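Interim report, section 4.2 (structural modelling).
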Amino acid sequence: MNLEDLILKCRSYRRFDENYSIKKEELLYFIKLARLAASAGNLQPLKYILSCEKDVNQKIFSCLRWAAYLKDWPGPAKGERPTAYIVVLGDKDIAQVFGVDAGLATQNILLGAVEKGLGGCIIASLDRETLRENLNIPPRFEILHVIALGKPAEKVVIEDIPPGGDIKYFRDDKDIHHVPKRPLEELILDIYC
Amino acid sequence: MNLEDLILKCRSYRRFDENYSIKKEELLYFIKLARLAASAGNLQPLKYILSCEKDVNQKIFSCLRWAAYLKDWPGPAKGERPTAYIVVLGDKDIAQVFGVDAGLATQNILLGAVEKGLGGCIIASLDRETLRENLNIPPRFEILHVIALGKPAEKVVIEDIPPGGDIKYFRDDKDIHHVPKRPLEELILDIYC
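Predicted structure of the assembly:
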């Protein structure tokens, strides 16, 4: 698959086929890709917790808040939940700011997932305090976000909207998830070419 | 090229073949890829300034600080400078925090560059005030970082270091740039698989 197709398929998936288990080796491959991303000052302050075990998955799942714009949907039901998670942490002994690093590494992980026929969703809206307790995460590590992973069991399509259009994602009556994307011309401030 | 090879080739390049011009169409393709990255709350607050024109390139170049660990190297000399730039901005009318979004989108841009035989470097250490003046960037837009782009004219290799090893990159006597990377086992806090 070429890069553009890979990126096109790399949508935020929130419903999965729970019969498909993700193996430890797959998660290690994703971290191998994350490790190769650039890092500010080459500090490499990111750490990862990997989970593909049912009990631990549940401890993570219970802390997540899903899809703020879908008011009537509390999150994936049993049978369609993620089968693995990567908790992305910032090691405060190494750096104090992690955002761009976390984005670069997370994109490698998500693209790796798509390449392997999987998919994921970045979840930054979560009960960090409970997650810290559930997984015994020491205070040294800032909880940045969780990447939920699984075999996607939903269709996600991009909607081209006019400049200034409504960016709230929605589901249609066929249960297809639509994600409005701002047009290219709205993203480019000036071109000096 | 498969994803792992693409990511392996996606190093931070700081010296380029200045005879190779980057075209507007190539930069637009990179922004097309950036547009397809995930965005927190789907807000899509990132904006981009594209430059592939000599005068404007110079206005950007003069604001950049290069490779903090290479004390004796003031940055790329004439003939080896980037031939295009993407200035990544955060639109404060849309959001207040941009880090992860900027990382996700920037990784798509950098991978797109590698796919096209180009390469780049994220530069966040820069004189933002002068850059704002030089390009007339309104106060509404936060300057996040600059992506310098060009046809790489240097060899960059990854060095595997032991846990806790020195992460400062360096150039050897053959002018090869070495980037120490922390080992996989140092990045993984716990595995629940």
